[in-house]
Amino acid sequence: MAASSERLIGGCLCSAIRYECMEAPCDVHYCHCRLCQRAFGNVFAVFGSLPVSALSFSRGAPQLYRSTPYAERGFCGTCGTPLTFRYLRSEWIAIAIGSLDHPDAVRPEVHWGIESQVPWLALHDTLPRKPIEGEPEYMVWRQPPE
Ligand SMILES: [Zn+2]
Ligand SMILES: [Zn+2]
Questions:
Q1: 26-53, pLDDT tens digit by residue?
Q2: Domain locations in the chain?
Q3: Which among 10, 27, 16, 12 has a CA at the least distance from the CA of 100?
Q4: Residue 136: pLDDT band with limits 50, 70, 90
Q5: How many CB atoms lie within 10 A of CB 111?
Q6: Coil, helix or strand for 119?
Q7: Ligand 1 centroid to residue 18 C-alpha, Å
Q8: Closest-approaching ligand to the CA atom of 59
Q9: What element of type H or E holds 38?
Q10: Ligand with the closest atom to the CA of 83
Q11: Which of 19, 96, 97 shows the shortest CA–CA distance to 57?
Q12: Contact, 33 vs 112, CB < 8 A?
């Protein structure tokens, strides 16, 4: 199943939001950073990027949450599914790969935010593992007080 030759469509859990990728997401990556962990309520996120102009919403539109002064995250206002990440004013947007109808159509190429990977998560692959430190989104975010 070649990602580039099939329609990459997806949406949220409740189907209030449906989208289509006009090109295959690139830079597909795991992100183990603390922001993604919080945003997904999971221990990592998987994202792929495409030009903003190549992402088309055929039904509904995500609500946007500005997670830091640098970035906003899109989610379904009805069911809460995380859907997008975008640095403000960037020409690129990342989609949550798990929201694709066929998430197996793309493959992660790298792990980001490896300093926050939980030790019990067993991912036995040979992909590059990189820290997230230095990313503006990560630099300014502060965890809520205990
Ligand atoms: Zn929904
Ligand atoms: Zn992240």
A1: 999 999 999 999 999 999 999 999 999 9
A2: 23-116
A3: 10
A4: confident
A5: 20
A6: coil
A7: 9
A8: 1
A9: helix 34-40
A10: 1
A11: 19
A12: yes
The mean pLDDT value for 51-61 works out to 97
Which pLDDT score, from 0 to 100, does residue 2 have?
Answer: 45
Distance CA 82, CA 103 (A): 14
Counting other chains too, the contacts that 86-89 makes at CB distance below 8 Å and 24 or more residues apart are 86/52, 87/136, 87/137
71 has a pLDDT exceeding 50: yes
Ligand 2 centroid vs 23 CA: distance in angstroms?
A: 22
Instruction: Determine whether 103 is exposed, middle or buried from the number of CB atoms within 10 Å of its CB (0-12, 13-18, 19+).
Output: middle
Q: For domain 23-116, give its CATH number from 3.30.1360.200, 1.10.443.10, 2.170.150.70, 3.40.50.280.
A: 2.170.150.70
State residue 6's pLDDT score: 59
Mean pLDDT, rounded, for 20-25: 96
pTM, full prediction: 0.90
Residues 31, 53, 104, 64, CA torsion sign: positive
Q: What is the distance in A from the centroid of ligand 2 to the CA of 32?
A: 6
